Amino acid sequence: MKQFVLNGYHIHDIPTFYEEVNRVFMQEADWKLGESLDAFNDLLYGGFGALAGNEPFQLIWRNFEQNKQDLGKALTQAYYQKKLEQPAVFNTPFFTKQLDDLNKGKGKTYFDIILEIISSHTHIELVAQ
C-alpha cells in the first residue's frame, strides 16, 4: 500500500496546510492546489498529482495533535469571519450559521472538516502520529 506523509511540523495555519498538501501530492504537477476544502476533497478522489486513481493508500499525519489545535476554533472563527466580510462572494447565511454553531461549541473546526473529508474517502487509512 502506498504511503504519503503530511509533515505537520510544517503546518501552522490554512496556507501552510495547503503548502504541505501540495508538497506531498502535487510535486510532479505543473500547478498547485488552491486553499479550498472542495479542491482538497477532489484531490483525494485521485486522477491527478501523486494519486493516479482511488487506489488505497495510507496517509500518515505527523504532529497531528498540535495541528488539531493549530487548525482549531480560533483559526476557524477567523476563517468564517473572513468569508462574512465578502457577502457578494460567499453564502453569508451559511457561514453565519457555521460561525454561530462553532461559538456555541457544536460546530466543526477547520481541522474537523479536513478529517471529515479524509474519512469520506474509504480508500484512505489515516494514521495520526
UniProtKB/TrEMBL annotation:
Pfam families: Barstar (PF01337). It comes from the Bacteria. Residues 1-77 form the Barstar (barnase inhibitor) domain. InterPro entries: Barstar, Barstar-like_sf. Gene3D superfamilies: Barstar-like (3.30.370.10). Belongs to the barstar family. This is Barstar (barnase inhibitor) domain-containing protein.
